[in-house]
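Most newcomers find our protein records easier to grasp once they have seen one. A learned vocabulary of local backbone shapes supplies the integers on the structure line. Here is such a record, shown just as it appears in the course material:
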Amino acid sequence: MCDGEMAQCPNATSANEILPCMDAVGVCYKGTCNLTRMCIAKEMEECESPEKTCMRHCKTKDGVCKSTADLDQFKHENYTQKGRWGHPGVMLRPMSQCMAGKGQCDQFDMCKPIKVSGSLSRNFEKFKSFGQTIVNKIWILIIIVIVVIALLVVVIKFCSYATPSSNPKKPKAKSLKQIKNMMSDRVKRMSSKRKPRKGKVNAPVEKKEKTNDEED
């Protein structure tokens, strides 16, 4: 026998398909307790009320979204939930959406508005402000692109030295220490070419006057 409180349903028969289950938050459907067919079992449709309430609502054939407390189909004793003896209507289970998706039911059958000030929302706002800054200052984006390209060039160059090759004509792969020494030597050579050594000044070249003997 199904008294509306248990989560298990009896065998799937036409007579058992309309029985409530799991403390009247669901209805038996094909032998299981379905939480979304409460109104369908009464030849109505599920609907959400914009009001701040956790009372289940059903849309009648007239297209009106009514509370189950105002519908005669849910006044049977099997639809009376624990702690609600003498109170008509069926309450939604905790964590269900309410207030047309803008709220959530708690364990006390209270519809609480959903707050959007969580960590995810704050991170989204930070990302949005960062993106707006990039759009307003396009030169920042250009610098970022240049830096990324430079890093890619360095990584590719480094991998070309450190990656072994099966081609005998190519030089052997170098270790990290060898690559470091090679890079430092290259930087020293480049700096020495650009900066002249101190203490050494090229003396001016004196022009020799040609004598008459040399002209002859």
The chain has two domains: 20-113, 119-189. DSSP finds four helices and nine strands in the chain. The first helix runs from residue 119 to 136. The beta strands are 20-21, 26-29, 32-34, 45-47, 57-59, 65-67, 97-98, 103-105, 111-113.
